[in-house]
Specification:
By secondary structure, the chain is of the alpha/beta class. It folds into two domains: about 1-150 and about 290-345, Quinone Oxidoreductase, Chain A, domain 1 (Alpha-Beta Complex), CATH 3.90.180.10; about 155-285, Rossmann fold. Helix content is about 25%, strand content about 25%. The chain contains 13 helices and 15 strands. Strands 3, 4, 5, 6, 7, 14 and 15 form a seven-stranded mixed β-sheet that branches. It has a six-stranded parallel β-sheet with strand order 10-9-8-11-12-13, with helices on both faces. Strands 1-2 form a two-stranded antiparallel ribbon. Strand 12, helix 10 and strand 13 form a beta-alpha-beta unit. The longest helix has 11 residues, at about 150-160. It is globular and about 60 Å long. The two termini are about 15 Å apart. This is Alcohol dehydrogenase catalytic domain-containing protein. Keywords: Metal-binding, Oxidoreductase, Zinc. Its cofactor is Zn(2+). Pfam families: ADH_N (PF08240), ADH_zinc_N (PF00107). GO terms for molecular function: oxidoreductase activity; zinc ion binding.
C-alpha cells in the first residue's frame, strides 16, 4: 500500500510500505476512506515531537471500513463503517476506567502516527478496536465524521469544558485555526454572551465570524484593549489558547480576568514563561491537556441530529493519492486559506 512516511525533521514521502495486519487479538485493520492532516503532524515535521521516529507512518484522524478483525474484537466487524479516534484506549487500565483515555496505561493514548503507524495511508491497523473506533450512523457523512476524530473533541474537552465555559461568559479564543474554530463552535453550545476570536489572518477571522464569533481581533488590533473595552476592564472569563506558541499562551494569561480560566489546547514545542508573580494573586486557573475523546459519542449524536455541522471546517479536498499536495496546501495556510483538508479514497 501507499502511506505518508516521516523521515526526520522536514522530510516526508508518500511511498510504498507493507500492508498492515492484525498483530493482537484486539486489533482491526481499517481501509482508510477519508483522512485529514492535523497541525500536530506539522509539529512532528518541525521536530517538535521527538518521540516520533523516522520511518513512522503519520496521521491519527480517519474514517474507514473494517476489513479484518482480531479474534477478541466484538463490537465491530468486517464491512462496518467506523470513525478511527485519534486516541486509542485499552479500556481496562485505571485511566480508561475513569474516561481519561488520553493517559491510557495499557498501550493506548495518542499512539497512531506517534508511537505506532498511523492513518495517512490506504490501510491502518487500529489497536483495541472495540474501544478505539466508533460505528457511524448511515446519515453521518465521512467528511462530517472525520472532524470528530480530533479537532471537535479536543476543542470541546480541552478548551471549552476544561475552561469551564458557562452561560453568559465572555470567551476569548486565541488562534482561529481548526482547533480555535472548533472551540468557537462548541463554546456556543454553552451560550456564552460573547465569543472573541484573535488571529492575524483575515481569512481565519472570516471563518471565525461565520462559525459564531461576535468580535474579531486582527493583526492591527490590540487584544488587551479590545477585551478590556468589551468587559468593562474586567477581562475574559475564559481564554482558550489554540495555537501552541509561547506568545499566544502568555497573551491568554493577560486577557483573562481575576478568577478566570486559561485553557491551553495548543500543542507546544517550546517553553513558555509562566508569570506566577502576576497570576498567583489573581486566582487564575490554568489547565492543559491531551484530548481523552470521552465526548466523541455525544458529539456524534449531535452531528446525527443536525445540531452540529463539522463539514463547515473543510476548505480543501484531494484524492488520497494527492497526499503531497494536501500537505503543501495545509502547511501554507496563510496563502491557501486552508483550515481542514480532506483526502478521500477515489
Amino acid at each position: 500500500m501507499r502511506a505518508l512516511v516521516y523521515h526526520g525533521p522536514g522530510r516526508r514521502s508518500w511511498e510504498d510500505v507493507p500492508d498492515p495486519r492484525v498483530v493482537d487479538a484486539t486489533d482491526a485493520v481499517v481501509r482508510v476512506d477519508a483522512v485529514t492532516i492535523c497541525g500536530t503532524d506539522l509539529h512532528i515535521l518541525k521536530g517538535d515531537v521527538p518521540a516520533v521516529e523516522p520511518g513512522r507512518i503519520l496521521g491519527h484522524e480517519a474514517v474507514g471500513t473494517v476489513t479484518v478483525t482480531g479474534s477478541a474484537v466484538g463490537t465491530v466487524k468486517e464491512g462496518d463503517r467506523v470513525l478511527v479516534s485519534c486516541i486509542t484506549a485499552c479500556g481496562r487500565c485505571r485511566y480508561c476506567r475513569t474516561g481519561a483515555y488520553g493517559q491510557c496505561l495499557g498501550g493506548g493514548g495518542w499512539i497512531l502516527g506517534h508511537r505506532v503507524d498511523g492513518a495517512q495511508a490506504e490501510y491502518v491497523r487500529v489497536p483495541f478496536a472495540d474501544t478505539s473506533t466508533h460505528p457511524l450512523p448511515d446519515g453521518v457523512t465521512d467528511e462530517a465524521a472525520l472532524m470528530l476524530a480530533d479537532i471537535l473533541p479536543t476543542a470541546y474537552e480541552v478548551g471549552v469544558l476544561n475552561g469551564r465555559v458557562r452561560p453568559g461568559d465572555t470567551v476569548v479564543v486565541v488562534g482561529a485555526g481548526p482547533i480555535g474554530l472548533a472551540a468557537i463552535t462548541t463554546a456556543r453550545l454553552l451560550t456564552p454572551s460573547h465569543i472573541v476570536a484573535v488571529d492575524p489572518v483575515p481569512a481565519r477571522l472570516e471563518a471565525a465570524e461565520r462559525l459564531g464569533a461576535d468580535m474579531l481581533v486582527g493583526a492591527d488590533d490590540d487584544p488587551r484593549t479590545a477585551v478590556a473595552d468589551l468587559t468593562g476592564g474586567l477581562g475574559a472569563d475564559v481564554a482558550i489558547e489554540a495555537v501552541g506558541v509561547p506568545e499566544t499562551f502568555e497573551l491568554c494569561t493577560r486577557l483573562v480576568r481575576p478568577g478566570g480560566h486559561v485553557a491551553n489546547a495548543g500543542v507546544h514545542g517550546a517553553p513558555a514563561t509562566l508569570h506566577l508573580e502576576d497570576l498567583w494573586i489573581r486566582n487564575v486557573t490554568i489547565t492543559t491537556g491531551l484530548v481523552d475523546t470521552y465526548s466523541t459519542p455525544t458529539l456524534l449524536d449531535m452531528v446525527a441530529a443536525g445540531r452540529l455541522d463539522p463539514a463547515a471546517f473543510i476548505t480543501h479536498r484531494f484524492g488520497l493519492q494527492q497526499m503531497d499536495e494536501g500537505y503543501r496546501t495545509f502547511s501554507d495556510s496563510r496563502t491557501t486559506g486552508a483550515l481542514k483538508v480532506v483526502l478521500a479514497r477515489n
